Input
Amino acid sequence: MIAPERPDRRETIRYLGGAGVEMNAEMERLMDDCEKQLLACARPKYLYKILELPQDSLTEGEDIRRHLAGCSRAVVMCATLGAEVDRLIRVAQVRDMAQAVVLDAMASVAVEQVCARLDERIMAENPGWFMTFRFSPGYGDYPISLQKTFLRLLDAQRKIGLSVSDSLLLIPAKSVTAVAGLSASPVPRGRRGCAVCSLRETCQYRRNGEHCGFENTVKE
Amino acid sequence: MNTVDLKTLLKNKEFILLDGAMGTLIQKSGAVYDHSPETLNLTRPELITSFHKAYIEAGADIVYTNTFGANAYKLEGSGCSVEEVIAAGIANAKKACEGSDALTALDIGPVGMLLEPAGTLRFEDAYDYFKQQVVAGRDADLIVFETMTDLYELKAAILAARENSDLPIIATMTFERSGRTFTGVSPASAALTLSGLGVTALGVNCSLGPDELEPVVAEMTRYTDLPLIVKANAGLPDPNSNTYDILPDRFAQCVKALLPYGVKFTGGCCGTTPEYIKELKAMLDGEHFQPCPKSTDTAVCSASTAVEINGPRIIGERINPTGKKLFKQALVNNDIDYILTQALSQVSGGAEILDVNVGHPEIDEKKMMVRVLKAIQSVCDAPLQIDATKPEVLEAGLRCYNGKPIVNSVNGEEKSLSAVLPLVKKYGASVVGLTLDENGIPKTAEGRFKIAERIVKRAEAVGIDRRDVYIDCLTLTVSAEQEACRETLKALHRVKTELGCKTCLGVSNISFGLPNRELVNSTFLTMALEEGLDLPIINPNIDAMTGAVRAYRVLANIDKNAAGFIASYNDAPSAPQPQAKAELSLADAVYSGLKNEAAQVTARLLEAADPMDVVNTMLIPALDRVGEDFEKNKIFLPQLIQSANTAQECFDVIKQHLGKSGNESVSKGKIILATVKGDIHDIGKNIVKVLLDNYGYTVVDLGKDVDPQAVVDAAVEQDIRMIGLSALMTTTLKSMEDTIRLVRQTPELQNPDGSSKCVVFVGGAVLTEEYAMKIGADYYCRDAKESVDTAKKVLG
Output
């Protein structure tokens, strides 16, 4: 439903904790090879649904209410790279662990890019509306258990093969669920700082006291 | 009470008309429900019955109950039990069927959680979910499993139905435009596997319109003799209006185009209404069922890949401990990765099917067979051959296998025939028949042919197609019995031509005790191929053997235009790899992650230097430099791993060298690694494993989703004092805490003063040092490098 696009190199390196590392030819080759493999088996798919607010069952917690403040509608969405990517990473873990970590990071970047394209489509299909950033279950105090609700609402298992395990892991792993607010008048896009970033503990930028500069991200 | 059943319908009717969508009618009616639409069975029974009735009036012979998601997982939190929702669902359908010959099908969809290896739901647990539904639905006339995307889940469902009910089963899967399901199942694999498991009919439902299903249906029918089911969507939904783009008359015309593929059951899925069923009925009135026998001879498969035995196919023999010290060691140490490496390298070498034998007196063969089969299938697409002598091992393997496997083997002994053949039939496998019996291996071709005949007869008696029996006429060692080779080949030829069976043969035995075994083996292989050998069991990583098969396929006009042959050899390197540059030092090679070069340099160094000197003055310092640079953020994780892997290559060269001079290498100590219960993201743990391995520690890898008790058991049984735990998600940190608590509470892991004997180190993306200490860990490791540092501190 969305053609796979090349994962951003800089982001991939950031995911690998390699911010500030100088790439050598060997690493470039490794990354090129991984990119080829990933593009060959990624099958990006997404779903979304627009709901009128308020939706009490979807807005548990302070953070999400703040995020959706001023919005009259919410877009519930999910996206995945598909099961083949999980398998690719699994096989790489047996064959060559260096490849596996690069593929893993690249796939994380790729699924974020799918979400960015999805954002663009939603905006294009809803002219006159203003949209906040995506906010995912697990960010801040927004309960991760809502993943289950999101997927049921979107009929995601049947429609794009995306499901969630008992311990609330998304399967396929390289997938995202999120909600964004829609408003008829301009709204702040909302801030996604280090506090809600899943990489906060391993991010090399943060360790170095720097910052990734990710779109509208703020340092704590 | 109905006077007809599915069998009668099949016999009496040209076509069997199924119903259309339930969800579409519910949606159109605007009926309101809490939680899930199945609860309407209880809250709005008359509405659901009216939908069934509308389909029966439109001509449906079978209606599906409104129970698609009525399983314990999906109904959780609905306030309704599986039993009451299903009982009400059947009552509603039966009520609608009154006064007609229509049948009620208990409708069952996927559980809603993904099965191992992609997900966490165990095969056995999926079985239990389905069993509950099957038992609750015993008053139905038949069972239908539909909208399945995972063949493994569908196998669990069918076994649950067959073992807990006598009702006939029909099953359909859902394919994408790519021709595969979401989990990668091919139509061929679905057809082969489902036919073997004893369903009455199989086919496709949902996902696409009938105009796009031709490739899927065409592939399915090649691999099955069973009637096909097509229950397509009304085309594609418009995301805004949620209406579908294929109207009833065109829908019927598209289905008509699929009838030549042996379609006997048809109806509609998402977006279809009684109008569609009416049109289908009108279209079918002028048509005749067109049976479509399978056009393939015999084939085996994994979930994604079918291998048709229509010419010589290579079975890889390497997953077998016989005569292999390292393999035995791997079995005893539970080192599954070693076995996976063997699997992948055989497939790279050219194997199309892999034999799997894990028989070893020191291990539980049944448990190991299940574990190894599941692990191989999680990374490898080649169909597998389950190789064991004990029937209970075969059955455990057959149960957990995803696809249609080969059983290796049955023989002419009564005991073997009566134990193995029913298993082969029940699980729909192919089987290798060895031409020996209680009197041993007959000397003559005639004697072996007789046994083959007996095996085939007995197989057919339990309902196994003789084409699924692969006869092994047994290779004897030519240096001991030189005349026996001719007898083997003669028997093979007769089996092939007179019995019409496929043949298989373990080839390597022929040359025991002779020099230049490879030459003898490949010559024998070529002779056997010419006599009609279909399935040589060989080491595919020996070029002469794989090459002989590939060349034979060209010369026998099987590999058309030599396309396969050319593809195999086109990009092979034409010249041997150049020697490493003389000036490259070992330290540089390790630092840059140049595996081949580093191994070559190591070998050269060993000609003059003491092995321990190479380790201590070159390899270890090189690794240390890599580690330091990693900490200083000069290099990053993939480089660290590549360097560590390169050092491993060097260690292997040194180990071999030491082995030659009789020294034993020493491990620095054993460490347990596990990704905790509920967590399946184990890449972090695996990175730690690679590094610890390379730094000389022996890692006991318990895998992912590991029960706390399994960690404790391994520590107690193998007397291990260091345990590493990984968790990726906040939701699974609790399991980490539980595991640590259990380790601390286990008396066998405590010192006399009550303190713990075990050192626990933990890591994972969401973990912090503070939290690690709070849950009782001894060390928090931020990354793989810190794990190695911790191991050095603890074990030295």
Notes: Chain B has a mean pLDDT of 92. The longest helix of chain B spans residues 637-660. Residues 299-560 of chain B form a domain with the TIM Barrel fold (CATH 3.20.20.20). Chain B has four domains: 6-285, 299-560, 586-660, 670-795.
